[in-house]
Write a structure and sequence with these properties.
The chain is mainly α. It has helices spanning 3-10, 13-24, 30-37, 41-53, 73-105; strands at residues 57-62, 65-70. It is elongated, with a radius of gyration of 19 Å.
Length: 106
């Protein structure tokens, strides 16, 4: 899975909103997503297609309905690759600062 596809999918506020909607209530149909988004069916379909290409959502057929589910794995991979390493340094600095300030109080 390419990080580029994930970043491209996340670049659009409409797609991020779709992910938020699926996070709030996973397993929604296209119709349900259109209602909650206030977008036309065609626009939502295009956004869902890009999210699916980025592996951020998966779908399951249930009869005539197609249910959409969020897939958090690519987001976690982006977190591990791009965010976590920067976060660890800051947390370490904050930890050291806290202990230094506490030491100075006594």
């Amino acid at each position: 899975m390419s990080d580029d596809k994930v970043f491209k999918a996340l670049a659009d506020p409409g797609r991020r909103m779709l992910l938020d909607r699926l996070c709030d209530r996973n397993g929604q149909t296209l119709g349900q997503l259109c209602e909650s988004m206030g977008m036309k069916r065609q626009s939502v379909t295009q956004h869902l297609g890009l999210l699916e290409q980025a592996n951020l959502i998966s779908t399951v057929r249930r009869g005539r309905e197609k249910l959409h589910f969020i897939n958090p794995v690519p987001l976690y991979e982006v977190y591990e690759r791009w965010i976590r390493k920067f976060e660890e340094g800051r947390l370490s600095l904050l930890h050291d600062l806290k202990h230094e300030l506490e030491r100075k109080k006594t």
